[in-house]
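Methods: holo model generation. Sequences were used as deposited, without trimming of termini or removal of tags, and paired with ligand SMILES retrieved from the corresponding compound records. Each pair was processed once, and we did not select among multiple samples. The sequence and copper (II) ion SMILES for this entry were:
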Amino acid sequence: MPRWLIPSLVLPLSTMLVGMAPEPVTHAPAPKVVLVKGMDVSATEFKWSPADITVNPGDTIRFEQTTTTPHNVEFKETPAGVDLGAAKVGPFLVTKGEHYDLAVDGRFKPGVYKFVCTPHESMGMKGTITIAGGK
Ligand SMILES: [Cu+2]
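and the model returned the structure below.
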């Protein structure tokens, strides 16, 4: 066999071997962005929509402003031992379309989190986030 033929035989063979490698097995769901909209129902009633969500560690919760009424995200109850730090009270969103992304990272433990919009809690603007993965 002429020497120049060898590389052209080896290359397709190695390509085939790579193609046969098994896919890595993972049980963690692919991270996703979960949208929660801050909405004005009326001049005296406001809401998060959806108000109750379940997310997985690694996901991102995107709180999106749909009006110009200032809304924010304040956590009122968290599982024991959780310290959200600066994320306990998020920034006010004041422009339509503005959003606040909250990464469900190491600050969060599995469990139920109750959150509100600070000025509109008594006007219905509250919800729950359940972080999956608990025992
Ligand atoms: Cu609000």
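The chain has one domain: 33-131.
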